[in-house]
Amino acid sequence: MSGKDIGSVKALVFDVFGTVVDWRSSVIRELEQFGRSKGIAADWVAIADGWRAGYLPSMDRVRKGELPWSTIDELHRITLDALLERHGVTGLSEAERDRLNRAWHRLAPWPDSVAGLTRLKRRYIIGTLSNGNVALLLNMAKHSGLPWDMIFSAELVRHYKPDPETYRSVPELLRISPGEVMLVAAHNSDLVAAAREGLRTGFVARPAEYGPHQKHDFKAEHPFDVVAGDFLELAERLGA
Q1: 13: helix, coil or strand?
Q2: Once rounded to an integer, what is the mean pLDDT over residues 188-211?
Q3: Which of these, 208, 239, 213, 228, lies nearest to 14 by C-alpha position?
Q4: Angle between helices 23-38 and 44-53 (to 10 degrees)
Q5: 3-state DSSP call for residue 81?
Q6: Does the structural domain 11-22+107-237 have CATH classification 3.40.50.1000?
Q7: Whole-number pLDDT of residue 4
Q8: CB 39, CB 98: distance < 8 Å
Q9: Interatomic CA distance for residues 202 and 207, integer angstroms
Q10: Residue 66, SS3?
Q11: What is the share, in percent, of the chain residues with pLDDT greater than 70?
Q12: Which of 39, 79, 124, 162 has the fewest beta carbons under 10 Å from its own?
């Protein structure tokens, strides 16, 4: 922990994909199960990695005005349809494609996530601050037992992180100051953008997020307010 005073923090908001949930293993598992059930052979691991690789570019298309405002569900579906075609997976019904796309609603948490969040909830308001849309985040919470007090989503302000409006929305909606909100994330760039808007910052490393393809975010690269190895250590450091 840095020497900065964080005693004024009242609310913790969490990046979700990669920080709270293990998206890669979850999506690969869903795709492989689908393939087995339908007798479809494909490189499901490559499809999962390609799906995530399309995440930032698709949001950039919205940011640049190439696409109208679209939810992550909608952007995921555009990317999925292109990947299925590229990998020769054809003949799927609309219901089957929708079922696959909703894999992101059923992501499993990291082993420490639920226990750590439950501890933190005793002392702090806890919520998401994710580019995921509200329905996706709510369904994921119900599926995985994530004990959020509040769902904060880019959908509420129609701006994707790292746009400033997304970070500003939390203190505005809670009627508290930016310094009373801490963003917890496994991604250095997300925390740097949050700090720029006056939020406090907590880094928790998830070195297995991208499996063998991880190339960054192995450690905190900036002087964040709190650095912890997992959510249980975060709770300890924050006195929860």
Answers
A1: strand
A2: 97
A3: 228
A4: 140
A5: helix
A6: yes
A7: 55
A8: no
A9: 16
A10: coil
A11: 98
A12: 39
Mean pLDDT of the region 41-52: 96
**Where residue 5 falls among pLDDT bands split at 50, 70, 90?**
confident
Q: Which of 154, 150, 152 is nearest to 165 (CA)?
A: 154
Q: Cα torsion at 223, 63, 137, 123 (round to 10°)?
A: 30
The DSSP H or E segment spanning 36 is: helix 23-38
DSSP H or E run through 128 = strand 125-130
**Sequence-separated (6 or more) residues with CB below 8 Å from residue 25:** 108, 211
Q: Contact 19/185 with Cβ under 8 angstroms? A: yes
* Architecture of the domain whose range is 24-106: Orthogonal Bundle (1.10)
Q: Coil, strand or helix: which one is 199?
A: coil
The DSSP output letter for 107 is P
The answer on pLDDT for 2 being more than 50 is no
Please report where in the chains the tokens 């999506």 appear, as a residue: 27
Any idea where the domains of the chain sit in the sequence? Answer: 11-22+107-237, 24-106
Beta bridge partners of 150: 127
Instruction: Determine the distance from the C-alpha atom of residue 34 to the mean position of all C-alpha atoms in its chain, rounded to a whole number.
Output: 23
CA atoms of 47 and 26, how far apart (whole Å): 13
pTM of the model: 0.95
Residue 128 phi/psi, 5-degree rounding, is -80, 155
